[in-house]
Design goal:
Elements (H helix, E strand, L loop, with lengths): L1 H23 L44 E2 L4 E6 L13 E7 L4 E6 L5 E7 L2 E6 L6 E6 L4 E4 L5 E5 L5 E7 L7 E2 H6 L5 H8 L3 H11 L11
Antiparallel strand pairs: 1-2, 2-3, 3-10, 4-9, 4-11, 5-8, 5-10, 6-7, 6-9
């Protein structure tokens, strides 16, 4: 038993640098600009050669103007995740800009891999999230200059309360926080309508109507809700 215990300790000593090498890679470097030509790993993208880095790698103007409008929500979305801004690789940072037109909405959705803090640049909107343990709702009317935080993985939303376009910027604790939009997950999937009806208690006729409304789709790559 003593010999086996010593062997186990020895194996841990030998393997621990290998097990932690990917997550520790960025700790021994000041930055790691993503090489998007290579596949991502659980620890992020491989690094662009340091000798090829320039100041332009650390500059991004993609949030200076509204992104494309996502139907049917009437909200325009622009993203700064690692796929758009490779310098974010391994830094645990991401950002989005959302322009919510009058009557527009950012629907219920969740980011499984990052928390979000939202800053209102212009306009008035309602924002909130639902707690996972009690299903308590935490909602607030936000105005210019306000901040609101959405904890990681929780369903949250925003919608415009004013008569003009609301503009918000969000920062994330991940360079790729992930996204699942509830409407798309429920009604733009390939599950049969009778299955969706059974598991949601929504009538099959209403499920069919919503499936026709949303259509079968996958989430656009990089959609930064």
């Amino acid at each position: 038993m003593v010999a086996m215990a010593k062997m186990a300790v020895l194996l841990l000593v030998i393997l621990s640098p290998l097990l932690s090498s990917s997550s520790d890679a960025l700790k021994v470097q000041d930055f790691c600009i993503a090489n998007l030509l290579l596949p991502a790993t659980p620890a992020g993208y491989p690094c662009k050669p340091r000798a090829l880095a320039t100041a332009n790698d650390f500059y991004f103007r993609g949030l200076a103007s509204p992104g494309p409008t996502v139907p049917p929500f009437n909200a325009a979305l622009a993203s700064a995740y690692v796929a758009q801004f490779p310098a974010l690789n391994g830094l645990g940072l991401g950002a989005t800009r959302v322009d919510i037109a009058r009557g527009g909405v950012v629907p219920l959705h969740a980011h499984p891999d990052g928390s979000e803090i939202l800053f209102v640049l212009e306009g008035t909107l309602s924002a909130g999230f639902v707690g996972a343990e009690t299903n308590a709702a935490y909602t607030k009317t936000l105005n210019k200059g306000d901040l609101f935080v959405f904890p990681q993985g929780l369903l949250h939303y925003q919608y415009n309360l004013g008569n003009a376009t609301a503009v918000v910027f969000s920062a994330y604790s991940s360079s790729d926080p992930g996204l699942q939009v509830t409407d798309f997950a429920l009604f733009a999937n390939l599950l049969p309508a009778d299955v969706v009806s059974k598991v949601t208690f929504i009538t099959e006729a209403e499920v069919m109507r919503l499936k026709r409304f949303f259509g079968i789709r996958s989430l656009p790559t990089g959609l930064p809700i």
